[in-house]
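== Fold encoding ==
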Amino acid sequence: MFTPRTHFDFRRFKRFIGGVVATFCMASMLGAPFAEASSRIKDIVQFESVRDNMLVGYGLVVGLDGTGDSLKDGQFTKQSLQSMLNRLGVKPTAAGLDSKNVAAVMVTATMPPFSRRGARIDVTVSALGDSKSLLGGTLLVTPLLGADGAVYAVAQGQLAVGGFAAAGAGQTVTKGVPTSGRIASGAIIEREVGFKLNSLKQVKLNLRNPDFTTSRRISQAINAFLGTAAAHPTDPSTVDIDVPKAYAKNVVGLLTDIEQLRIQPDQQARVVIDEQTGTIVMGENVRLSTVAIAQGNLTVRITETPQVSQPGPFAQAGTTTTVPRTTIAVSQGKDKKMAVLPNGVTLQDLVNGLNALGIGPRDLITILQAVKAAGALQAKIEVM
């Protein structure tokens, strides 16, 4: 039996639910920009010891349509072919090996972390000799070695080549790279890399872009989630995590929960310049002190338009000759004006100001380097 004090007040409950919904909506609206700007820890770090392993091997590709190595010049191809046939019980003579349907190749593959025996991985096959194309070839059994010299996988299969080459007496057409191909699931794992992840007592996170502020924010986010000071940054690129008791023998669960946390990564003000292509990439935090910029070039353009002079149709004398005609134009860049950029301008202001001068990427590279030399560019310049 209910007493009057325990009577359910539906109106008060309805107001409470409405307030909760309104608060949730406001929090969602305020948190939307932060969520868009933040990144998952999974996307900015990599877990130590969870890494790929590079494999490499040397093999032979057979079945080519006359586009293989020249055995007379490629001695290593000839020796490899002889050695393979000897293992199969065939004793060929040196003079009998004149086929152009065989090519020596290098086989490379990437072994994912925690790969198990019997799993298959993709391989890339690249010509090593003077083969013209690997189209239609078949890779023979090739052991793939790791950095320690042990065999971790064995590759074999039909090559898939995206490029081709066709040649005639007066013209050659080449598309892509016909001397390189891939074999999907072409290698079988034969040896595992022993590593017990769940037995770790400590986990290390390696930042892809080392930064003091980012590493500290990562540790703070992890500690707030775990409710204990388990994470601590040791340097700009490493965050150590002591596995809590709640995750003992369950490091996979710990990494799964941690990698979904979101933080706002920080970055150094940086200007990256590629001199070869004229590409310029500027970070968000690039700032300028007060500086005046003027840019102008002396341009001399010389144009040659020779004309042919010849006598009339019925002239008794005269010869045909070429008369030179030269046009010279000089531009001193008088339309270029000096622009003043105030203190603390943003990246957008910098770009707008330099574009107002009408300069191209090549001149912009020189201007940025000069501004940096003057001490007015508050950023690091990296030339690729």
In short: The radius of gyration is 35 Å. The chain has three domains: 53-165+173-189, 196-263, 270-307+323-383.
